[in-house]
């Protein structure tokens, strides 16, 4: 089985250039705030989590042709189908987000830090190598940073593991680190003076 | 950065944070030269979206 994320664009040269938009331009079309509202309301129902949502977006085959809120809408349509929410015998919503609760709900956020049940494997300053293989599921290890040697820059604590959560296999919390790479390690001499950091869960890393 | 109209000298060190998990980073825009006399409210007027997402510099101090 192969899993393709169409959103993993870091370092890819064929990707079109960026067209900067005017300061303070939030929406471009009247339907865009409606899609934002639809997605927020349906996320609150609790049939899927943020990582399933990202996976649904990133695997849209026409991802690169779509605008930001087109991606949101198409992924919502897809996840409504795949989650069974549209089935005749779908369970009733676990929660309903009422208009009056939106501001407070958004302000509360959804923390993903979890209690540590074992010590971290790595410490600040330690050299690590990221795993090289391409997993057959959602992951947050960018393609440009696979099989590369970097340094642990920060230990963030234990967080919900996106790879597991996206597959509906549970939160499987893991230690999360910031790992810094030399630009040369990632992209050769063209990126000579750059340093690039990613946030990486422990299963992405091996001692180097 | 060039796409955003930002052209930096070769001597500028570039530091990239790719926010791949749920950790979020707050970008502090670089304070423009000759802004020492300005109040907090005046300084806030120099801040742009791009300078808060790390792809631009704040507006220059008005003459």
> Approximately what portion of the residues of chain B adopt beta-strand conformation?
5-15%
Total beta-strand segments of chain B: 1
- The separation of the N and C termini of chain B measures 26 Å
| Largest interface, C-beta closer than 8 angstroms, per-chain residues | A-B, 28 and 17 residues
Helix/strand class of chain B: little secondary structure
Overall form of chain B: globular
Number of helices of chain A: 6
Q: Report the β-strand fraction of chain A as a percent range.
A: 15-25%
Mean pLDDT of chain B: 92
Assembly type of the shown chains?
heterodimer
Structural class call of chain A reads alpha+beta
How many E-type strands of chain A? 6
User: Whole-number average pLDDT of chain A?
Assistant: 94
Q: Which stretches of chain B are low in confidence, meaning pLDDT under 50 for 5 or more residues running? A: none
From the N-terminal CA to the C-terminal CA of chain A, the straight-line distance is 29 Å
How many distinct helices of chain B?
2
Order of helices and strands of chain A: HHHHEEEHEHEE
Instruction: Sum up the overall morphology of chain A in one term.
Output: globular
Q: Which residues of chain A form runs of ≥5 with pLDDT under 50?
A: none
What does this structure look like?
The complex is a heterodimer of chains A (208) and B (63). With 208 residues, chain A is α+β, with helices and mostly antiparallel strands. In chain A, 26% of the residues lie in helices and 17% in strands. In chain A, helix 2 (50-58) packs across helix 3 (68-82). Helices cover 14% and strands 6% of the residues of chain B. Chain B is built from 2 helices and 1 strand, in the order E-H-H. The longest helix of chain B is centred in the middle third of the chain and has 5 residues, at 40-44. The radius of gyration of chain B is 13 Å and the shape is globular. In chain B, 6% of the residues are buried. The A-B interface holds A 10, 17-20, 23-24, 112, 140-142, 145, 156, 159-160, 162, 176, 178, 183, 193-201 and B 3-5, 13-23, 48-50. Strand 5 (195-201) of chain A pairs parallel with strand 1 (15-18) of chain B, so a sheet runs across the interface.
């Amino acid at each position: 089985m192969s899993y393709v994320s169409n959103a993993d664009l870091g370092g890819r040269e064929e990707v079109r250039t960026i067209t900067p938009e005017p300061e303070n331009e939030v929406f471009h079309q009247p339907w865009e705030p409606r899609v934002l509202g639809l997605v927020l309301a349906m996320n609150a129902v609790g049939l899927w989590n943020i990582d399933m949502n990202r996976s649904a977006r990133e695997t849209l085959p026409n991802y690169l042709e779509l605008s930001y809120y087109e991606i949101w809408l198409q992924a919502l349509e897809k996840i409504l189908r795949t989650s069974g929410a549209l089935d005749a015998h779908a369970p009733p919503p676990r929660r309903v987000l009422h208009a009056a609760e939106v501001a407070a709900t958004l302000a509360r956020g959804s923390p993903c830090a979890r209690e540590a049940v074992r010590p971290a494997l790595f410490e600040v300053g330690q050299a690590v190598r990221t795993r090289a293989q391409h997993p057959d599921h959602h992951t947050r290890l960018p393609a440009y940073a696979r099989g590369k040697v970097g340094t642990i820059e920060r230990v963030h604590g234990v967080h919900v593991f996106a790879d597991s959560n996206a597959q509906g296999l549970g939160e499987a919390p893991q230690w999360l680190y910031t790992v810094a790479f030399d630009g040369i390690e990632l992209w050769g001499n063209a990126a000579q003076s750059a340093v690039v950091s990613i946030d990486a869960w422990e299963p992405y890393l091996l001692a180097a | 950065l060039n796409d955003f109209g930002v052209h930096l000298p070769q001597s500028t060190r570039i530091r990239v944070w790719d926010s791949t998990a749920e950790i979020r980073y707050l970008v502090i825009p670089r304070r423009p030269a000759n802004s020492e006399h300005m109040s907090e409210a005046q300084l806030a007027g120099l801040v742009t979206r791009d300078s808060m997402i790390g792809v631009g510099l704040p507006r220059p101090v008005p003459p």
